[in-house]
Amino acid sequence: MTSFSKNRSMLFIALATVTLMLIPATNSFSAKDGKIIWKSSGHGPASDPSQIYHDKLCHAITEATGGRLTVKPFVGGSIVPAYKEVDAIDAGVLQMGYSTPMYNLDKWPAAGLISSRPGGLPGEALRTWFDFAGGADLLNKMMGDYNVMTFPGALSPLPEEVFFHSKVKLETLADLKGLKARCMGDGGEILKRMGAATVIIPGGELYEAMQRGTIDAFEYSTLASNWNMHFNEVAKYVYLSPTRAPSDPQVIFVNKDAWAKLPADLKAIVQAVVSKYTQDQHEYLVNESLKAVDKFKAAGNEVYKVPKEIEDALTAEAEKFYAEKSKSEKPIFAEIYNSMTEFGKAYNAIK
Fold first, then answer.
1. Beta carbons of 71 and 40 less than 8 angstroms apart
2. What does pTM read for this prediction?
3. Which among 183, 212, 227, 263 counts the fewest CB atoms within 10 Å?
4. Which H or E run contains 254?
5. How far is Cα 349 from Cα 351, in angstroms, rounded to an integer?
6. Could you tell me which of 18, 16, 85, 21 has the C-alpha nearest to residue 50?
């Protein structure tokens, strides 16, 4: 068992402490001596709820520590190019960041398993696996010698992703052939195997890419996030299905050296505040996504479930893809995949 697993109880005990410390009148710590300053970046545009919650989290840590640890928030792309947050944390340019594991497939092929994975765990199950069934430890093992780490409570599962916002109506499997679509991570690779022409485009550039006709369709985050980004204006059709991304997890990463320098009490407070805000974001987006369905319809969008033919083909292709990768990649890939699969079986058995 790692130190993170052993300290889980400390995290949840600290939640009660943080609740008291967040009251404005409370200032238990002095900021004048030994003040620590961190820089942290989200990965999205300022209007993305994930960026908003990242910024709230940074301010909450600063307040909860009485300024002993000041975390300065930055919007995605303002310090380093979007999706390169983990590289910046590794280099010490950032001390913390809120990003999606699949943006790091260039370093860790197994990262896609913990990131909007076709056939993966739904939100509640994913967070439970991450916090209590070894998921955070496996992610740290995957990152290996990189100067980056995470901890239980740092994953916000988020609701299932929108399957596609599309200019093209999807009625049969043949409609995927040649579809110019922004699709990230393993889902993008699997859809490419099914005939789609997938590309990687940062979330903040999707609106313009659709306007210019660079792409015909795209996946991005939740209904709630996408409504706030005005995607109703650039795509007539909204397709929903949990098959490609049953959750849209994002993770708080920190620099190992910066973390090691924190006193034990500040580590506990950071973990507790992170756990609160990642869970709050998930619950908020579940509720707002329910409301967003009606907003898209009222705006003139047509909202559909993905045809079963496409869902079945995607599920079958995903199973082939992960069977192949488990054999060809480093052992950590199969270790994470098997851990998630066994947890999923146990989870589904009681549902």
1. yes
2. 0.84
3. 212
4. strand 250-255
5. 6
6. 85
